[in-house]
Amino acid sequence: MREVEHAIDLTSSETPHKPLYSLTHPEMDELKKQLDYLIDRGLLRPSTSPFGAPVLFGGLRLCLDYRALNKITVKNRYPLSCIENQIARIQGARYFTKLDLRWGYWLVRIRDGDQHKTAITTRYGAYEFMIRGCLP
């Protein structure tokens, strides 16, 4: 498997930092649990970045509001493979692998020097991701 790093190239020198969103007590408890889980696994670390995206919940799934960062991020344009071509390539194959796409983003590291751009702000402090911040 090739090493992949996610780069966050910006179109301006802005450092978006949005205010915190209101969270319920159960959401606060879940946030603390998920932050501890990510920190314990080395996927998230404390941050002093001037960037700051608020967190919110969809159900009890942690969501990150990177809309302000996305506005100043260079858009990468990669052609997507045609699924029919990919299926044709595996015709006759005898062995297959199963991928857990839920956790796939956690396999993509953030490029060194870009981690501060992923900073999130919470009532428990500010943190930045070492990996793609798409949570299961």
From TrEMBL:
Lineage of producing organism: Eukaryota, Fungi, Fungi incertae sedis, Chytridiomycota, Chytridiomycota incertae sedis
CDD domains: RT_LTR
InterPro entries found in the cross-reference section: DNA/RNA_pol_sf, Rev_trsase/Diguanyl_cyclase, RNA-dir_DNA_polymerase, RT_dom
Pfam families xref list: RVT_1
Entry superkingdom: Eukaryota
Organism of origin: Synchytrium endobioticum
Protein name in the entry: Reverse transcriptase domain-containing protein
SUPFAM superfamilies: DNA/RNA polymerases
Residue intervals of the Reverse transcriptase domain: 59-123
